[in-house]
């Protein structure tokens, strides 16, 4: 009997049923549980990521380059050293003046050295031009330009000290003897005929020299006048107070002045300088900005001074509490008229 029951249970067919659908409330509970589980799982990862970000920020801070500590230049004065070591917006102009001064001195020294080089070049150019024509011929024998100049000067000094022996030595170096010179036919040089000037020619030469001398004197006087005009013009312009700014402004004005002079439209040097100055300053934003700051600064200060004086005047007029003549209060128009008649 029991075996039959087991066979029936084993052979019993069970119907496959679909799970019953959940209600809306059950679905919401299930979704809330699942979201809560995900959030709990994410919190450790976020906590793990935060220390990593902190580590990267620390690494970035450690990789920042430290500001170098520099000693001030040796040519700085006390105020410039203080501004260099402790720069602020209040002492920035001190560093600007130092940089402009150093730039001006550097360019001035460079120009002076270039003038010395050009002077030396002019002194040696004549000798170099003569020797350089035969440089290749002497170079074949291994003789440089310096050796040529040294030998020439040595022979010249020897001829002054001992001309006979030096001449004999010089002839012997070329394989020539005195007999060779004696066998050559000697023809004395014919004296040159002297040409005398006529009176008209002498007067023409004298007049030409006088005219050239007068032109030279006139040019010197004009140069002195122009120099005074330039100095007066520069003293009246604030941009020429700083040497570096003045040198830059002069460099830009020089070609403009030359072009204006070539036109012949201006009757005086003052007009030329003023026109060139306005042209350069208005065309250069740096110079125009400096001029604007220089002109607006005094105006603002003047306005502030006027406002301050007006405030002081208003204080003196109003006075403090209880000062000045007290006002009399009138109850009516009749009381006011009666006080006027009484002279109160």
Question: Could you describe the 3D structure shown?
Answer:
The protein is mainly alpha-helical and 344 residues long. It has 13 helices and no strands. Among the domains are: 72-133, no CATH class; 134-183, no CATH class; 201-236; 238-312, no CATH class. 74% of the residues lie in helices and 0% in strands.
Describe the secondary structure blueprint for this structure.
Elements: H1 2-10, H2 24-63, H3 78-85, H4 92-132, H5 135-140, H6 145-161, H7 163-173, H8 178-183, H9 199-236, H10 243-263, H11 269-283, H12 285-318, H13 333-342
Q: Please indicate the percent range of residues in DSSP E strands (runs of 2 or more).
A: under 5%
| Rg (CA only) | 52 Å
Structure summary, number of beta strands: 0
- Mean model confidence by pLDDT: 76
Spell out the helices and strands N to C. HHHHHHHHHHHHH
- Binned, the helix content reads over 70%
- Gap from first CA to last CA: 144 Å
Number of helices: 13
Uncertain spans, ≥5 residues at pLDDT below 50?
A: none
Structural class: mainly alpha
Biggest sheet character: none
Provide tags for this entry.
single chain, 344 residues, mainly alpha, 13 helices, 74% helix
Please sum up the structure shown.
This protein is mostly helical. It has helices spanning 2-10, 24-63, 78-85, 92-132, 135-140, 145-161, 163-173, 178-183, 199-236, 243-263, 269-283, 285-318, 333-342.
